[in-house]
Amino acid sequence: MRLATLAIVPVVLLAALAPDAPAAGSELPQLKAYTVAASWRTPVEPLRITDHVWQVGAADITALLVKTDAGAVLIDGGMPQMADSLLANLRKLGVAPADLRLILHTHAHADHAGPFAAIKRATGATLVSNAESAVLLQRGGAHDLHFGDDILFPPVQADRLLQDGEEVRLGGTVFTVHFTPGHTPGSMSWTWTDTQAGAPVRIAYADSLSAPGYRLVDNPAVPHLLETFEHSAAIVRALPCDLLLTPHPDASGWNYADAAKPHPEPMTCAAYADGAVERLKKQAQAQRAGRS
Fold first, then answer.
1. d(CA 9, CA 98)
2. First-to-last CA distance in the chain?
3. What is the dihedral sign for C-alpha 280, 108, 59, 213?
4. Whose CA is closest to 125, among 68, 205, 204?
5. Which of 61, 81, 181, 198 is the most exposed place for a label (fewest CB within 10 A)?
6. 123 with 151: CB under 8 angstroms?
7. Model pTM above 0.85
8. pLDDT score of 74 more than 80
9. Residues acting as catalytic residues
10. What rounded mean pLDDT belongs to the chain?
């Protein structure tokens, strides 16, 4: 499927990305443009997760569509270039643009919040966020604590701001937000209950617990970043979690490109949290060793 080209600013995405020449026609030509993994921009056919939840994003980036009896909800969107593909996948599932009522998200980086401005324009859906993320969304990712102005996307205005533990309801479906800061100050995880073959399934969509290139030790902008991650990992560990999903699917054992066996290595919320803390501690230890 060929995607339409969107007018977007250049994007740097997280780690090990090779610099390229500035993109022609870029809105901010003074910034560097970077290539990203093709799988982050490769559309996939809608993949059913549970009775009312589908993966509708890219091969290696999660975007979830949740159908309710009062309309649909999109949780995360992927890269800015994915807007047309997302809308096409919604139509394949019988969801017209006007049927999308809510947009929820995990964190405000370009590989997850990138198409929100375009999706809002096309659907009129309400974008739900929190205070910390709303600032980053409105700036289009500029002045990020860890990446500065290197992770940019079309700015978008949040319509509703949440408090930790608040519920978002649409029809008979109740989404609960859990603030899990670290990857960004406004990182959020979500839980709700769906069914699978008629049986209840408690879904946890846990945000990233990674620190790609972050300064975990003696960071003047975020002095207690490692402790913040550890606290958020404890929250994720305790989530109601029959089925774990994550913004980067491989982090929780998913392979969306393999429709026959998309979840070859299921992971619990506890295992996800414990593995993240172990990696973060090793990262901090390496930074301390390099400092001494």
1. 27
2. 52
3. negative
4. 68
5. 198
6. no
7. yes
8. yes
9. 107, 109, 111-112, 183, 214, 248
10. 89
